[in-house]
Amino acid sequence: MLIASQLEPTYARRVYPCFDAPAMKATFNIRIVHDPSYVALSNMPAIDVSEMKDENGSLWTVTTFNTSLKMSTYLTAFVICDFDYVTRTERGNEIRIWARKEAVKNGYVDYALNITGPIFSFLEDLLNVSYPLPKTDLVALPDFGAGGMENWGLMTFQESSLMYLPSDKLTSRKAMIAIIVSHELGHQACEMLRHFFFLFKWFGNLVTMNWWNDLWLNEGLASYFEYLGATFIEPKLSLDKIFYDHVVQPVLREDNEIGVRSLSESEDKIKGSFSLMSLFDSITYNKGASITWMLSGFLTEKLFIRALTSYLKEFSFSNANQDDLWTHIQMVVDAQDEVQLPASVKQIMDSWTCQNGFPVLTLNLTTGTISQEQFLNKKNENSTDSYNNTWIIPISWMRNGSSQPLMWLDKSSKVFPEIQVSESEYDWILLNVNLSGYYRVNYDKLNLKRLARVLESDPKVSRFQLIDDVFALTQFGYIQIETALELTKYLAREDELFIWNVVLLNLVPENLEGTLKNYEVYPLLKKYLLKRMLPIYHYYAGFIRQNVDALEDDYFAQVYLEKLFATACWMGLQDCLKLSSELYAKWMDNPEYKIPFLIRRTVCCYGIAVGSDKEWNFAWEMYNHTNSTKEDKDILLSAMSCAKESWLLYRYLQYGLSDTLFSSNCTSIIILYVVTKDIGHRIAWEFVTENW
């Protein structure tokens, strides 16, 4: 049995009577009466443990906790468990990590214990604020709806975010640090960043938003610090790429629908039309972090941190809204003369937080004109209404490879003589070079041609946002697909998985098999991509065959190699299919053998696809093996639907119905896996209708 609370945003009122709003701060005296064989935890240290009898004469334990600091109701918390803990002290703050007894015994939480203290110290030093509590408990919960919760003094996490198994090769410290809990990739959760995120939010607990409409102040700032923290622990990470890739790019893909809300909505609007829970979304986390990243970029990190420090000091133990933050930044800007802004901090930032969506910049390099409009889907009739939102936009740029001073676009269109290009085809311009702008760029044809040439001669130029933008512009009807493909001709020379991933994301659909029906496109795509993919495929296949451990430090290989291999196998690259059968056969010969984690999903799928019932039965046997982890099971569940013989798929679906073989929630998962495969589509439909 286990009890753990999650009171954000509005559940404290279900535990005790209170004015349950973030601006109502108080101190709390908590006492818990519980079964003697359990331990009770709360925000503060326990100061007394005694016994009492109830009317039936049963014995209970009473745990009383010290009075809390002044804080919001949603941060109060309690856990009643029979867990064990490991502990260490950092600058007088006792840190304990609690988890199931066997997990503690096996050392699964040691890593978390080792990094929590240093992160605390890093944040204290960076923000010049000392952590106000005497103890900090971090609890790993086997089942928890939120990813984690920053209750003051008693943080709760999903088990996967606090533990890792020392035996697992992939969880090299660097990968742990580097990968954000990246669900799409199903890799192990990135402890380090998660940690930073929640530990920074503890500093955020000092200053709470006035009300939930400014939730992004808590969450967006924390997401930004998550990344600063990661570079502190792991300086070799190329932070700008990881940040753009995990945070900016996904939200740019969402923040362009008509109905998407702005980052900071008025209180009335939220009370009228949103549920509070819906505010805990990617606009709050990712857009909040992206805007913060852009702000820190044009202010410089030094000034930004200086402003934050004074903001945290002034509002400790009270509440603030976004205008309070702008005021503190303005004070810091006014006190120096290196950074000059075209308008007040509030005017600049309100244009990003109070309007929905984001701009696309359109360039005409013959005249040197840059104009802006809201980025909306031109193919969608409703979105052609004129939206006259304008933003105050910081533009980082380079000319012919060398960086230029920051420019500002503060109206709908403006002429910048410095960006006019000459007749020479070697004269080119690239915008948003440091990836910190929250906008897209639509270049004129002339410049795109020149950029395509540059890529062919020097594929190392800052190209991620360039390629991502042209595909997004294509998808939304701003430019033709041919224009975007011009920029991919050079790909045979592209050796970064980070870039390949964005290309594959745009050219190769999520549902691979469904595309096979598109008989006009598939063979062309196959021919076009395979030819260009071979060099990078063979480069990584070499490591997989000879020395996979060498990839342990390659962050992007940890995250994206799977997509590259899956695409190569899907396109029928012989070597990829051969490699998959070889590794799968090796596993069948010796079940102790571990298929390289980086491509395990692909290898299992194609090992079964290329094989017969022998390969399938082995997967089935391993699935039912008591030792297999949840992740192993998930990979095999998916792989067994890759079989190419229809009777195997019929049998698999039939197994899926059986209560004795599967828990009932697997039935629909199996059907979903089968239905996305080319031969499985019809089989799954027949099966569903027969067994309705």
TrEMBL record:
Peptidase M1 membrane alanine aminopeptidase domain boundaries: 111-352
CDD domains in UniProt: M1_APN-Q_like
Source organism, top-level taxon: Eukaryota
Intracellular or extracellular location(s): Membrane
Pfam families assigned to the protein according to its UniProt record, in alphabetical order: ERAP1_C (PF11838), Peptidase_M1 (PF01433), Peptidase_M1_N (PF17900)
Site for Transition state stabilizer, residues: 285
Coiled coil: none
Residue positions of the active site: 184
BP GO annotations: peptide catabolic process; proteolysis
Chief location category: membrane
GO molecular function (one): zinc ion binding
Aminopeptidase N-like N-terminal domain segment(s): 2-75
Cofactor: how and how many bound: Binds 1 zinc ion per subunit.
Keyword annotations of the record: Aminopeptidase, Glycoprotein, Hydrolase, Membrane, Metal-binding, Metalloprotease, Protease, Signal-anchor, Transmembrane, Transmembrane helix, Zinc
Record-stated family: Belongs to the peptidase M1 family.
Name under which the protein is recorded: Aminopeptidase Q
Organism listed in the record: Nipponia nippon (Crested ibis)
Cofactor(s) this protein cannot do without: Zn(2+)
GO cellular component assignments: cytoplasm; extracellular space; membrane
SUPFAM superfamilies documented for this protein: Leukotriene A4 hydrolase N-terminal domain (SSF63737), Metalloproteases ('zincins'), catalytic domain (SSF55486)
Positions contributing to Zn(2+) binding: 183, 187, 219
Species classification: Eukaryota, Metazoa, Chordata, Craniata, Vertebrata
Residue intervals passing through the bilayer: none
Topology term for the membrane: Single-pass type II membrane protein
Domain ERAP1-like C-terminal: start-end pairs: 428-692
